[in-house]
């Protein structure tokens, strides 16, 4: 994990995968990872996935405008719709302001 600047924006995406079309999902995920890394204001992300397909991705953004620009990016819109139709049975998304952050390593 990486510590992101205070007063950044966190977009918290929690989704349950269907298990359908794993190859298509992996290809789309790789393409979106490459694309998001090039977006203005993108700071990075944290993610985790359980064995039953529940995943959480938190992306961090310099400001709300940057996060909204990613939400509205045409290629991201296409993949989001494909995800709704094929790869996810449900998801939630929350946007929050990061006020403080701490990290620790052993």
TrEMBL record:
GO molecular function per UniProt: monooxygenase activity
Pfam families: ABM
Transmembrane segments: none
Keyword annotations from UniProtKB, A to Z: Monooxygenase, Oxidoreductase
Top-level taxonomic group: Bacteria
InterPro entries: ABM_dom, Dimeric_a/b-barrel, Jasmonate_Hydroxylase-like
Domain ABM: 23-81
Keyword check for Oxidoreductase: yes
Protein name, per record: Antibiotic biosynthesis monooxygenase
């Amino acid at each position: 994990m990486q510590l992101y600047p205070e007063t950044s924006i966190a977009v918290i995406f929690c989704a349950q995968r269907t298990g359908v079309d794993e190859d298509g999902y992996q290809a789309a995920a790789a393409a979106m990872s490459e694309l998001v890394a090039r977006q203005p204001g993108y700071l990075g992300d944290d993610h985790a996935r359980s064995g039953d397909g529940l995943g959480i991705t938190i992306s961090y953004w310099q400001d709300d405008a940057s996060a909204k620009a990613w939400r509205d990016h045409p290629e991201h819109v296409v993949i989001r719709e494909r995800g709704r139709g094929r790869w996810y049975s449900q998801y939630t998304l929350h946007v929050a302001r990061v006020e403080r952050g701490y990290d620790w390593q052993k």
